[in-house]
Amino acid sequence: MSRGTMTDGAPENSYPERPRAAVAPFEVEPLAPTEVERIKALRAAFEQRFPPLPLDRSDVLIVSWAEIERQFLDLCAPWDQQEPCYEIRKAAQISRHETPEQTIRWLFTLSRAATDIDTPEPRWGSGDSIPMP
Description:
- The protein is mainly α.
- It has four helices and no strands.
- The chain has a domain at about 65-115.
- Helices cover about 40% and strands about 0% of the residues.
């Protein structure tokens, strides 16, 4: 068996999935036509300011959105899964109209904004999560 594949040809996970509660099922609303037009206008401005990077074939990385979501949620705080899951699904939907550079920047932003697995759960209702003057 070679590294990265199982005997049946399916990819092997690089690490075991952490046990976590399932995220409540939800659907991401389709993008409105006006939203698609806005994204396309932003794409044109982005490409003008940041031209696409030249690639050789060794620079290509293919990862499924399901795998991105799985790994992202594995690294989020167990008590904070619904919002990050929504944000990843929204990023996947918007990425169809963006450049790869825009998508990767958005994923970096999401990773910085999310809680991590070591973030303590706030004591709800105590006011501890709200900074006081």
